[in-house]
Amino acid sequence: MSNDMDPNVALREMMRAAARTDAAVAQIRGQGQSGGGRVRVEVDATGTITKLDIAESPHPIAVGDLPALIIEAQRLACAQARESAEELRRDLSDSPEAQAMIREFHRRPAPDPSQVPSEFGATEFDYLDDAVWEPAWRRSWEE
Asked: pLDDT tens, 5-56?
């Protein structure tokens, strides 16, 4: 891809890449354990527990200790899942499509706030968010 990529093409490609990234993030699982490995937790990228294993042991876990052990294992699993998701998202933001969009954004002069339609916010960011990014995301999901 060249540095002069059409921003509309770049946006469509970025939307597709974002959808692929979202699908990949949905598949992420993090694992954590505590209590010497007797409590094992698996979570998805949102931190929701998808699997909980409490191993049988000749030295049973005291009922009062169990909540803290589950929370600790979940915390470790969440950190692992979060790191994996951030890596995928970082790959998306570093993609050629994202870089083309950023270059195009910085290349264009900022709009005159008096020319921004009143139904949008008065700032360039509000205008772009309402008029460009939100409809683009919506269109990409409808494809």
From this structure: 666 777 788 788 888 888 999 999 999 999 999 999 999 999 999 999 999 8
Determine the 3-state secondary structure of 51 from DSSP.
strand
Tell me the torsion sign for CA atoms 70, 75, 76, 78: positive
The answer to whether residues 33 and 51 touch, using CB atoms and an 8 Å cutoff, is no
Token digits for 95? 């993609």
Q: Which helix (H) or strand (E) holds 39?
A: strand 39-44
- In the 3-class helix/strand/coil scheme, how is 69-122 assigned residue by residue? HHHHHHHHHHHHHHHHHHHHHHHHHCCHHHHHHHHHHHHCCCCCHHHCCCCCCC
pTM exceeds 0.70 for this model: no
Query: Confidence band (pLDDT; 50, 70, 90) for 2?
Result: very low
Residues 78/29, Cβ–Cβ less than 8 Å = no
Architecture of domain 7-108: 2-Layer Sandwich (3.30)
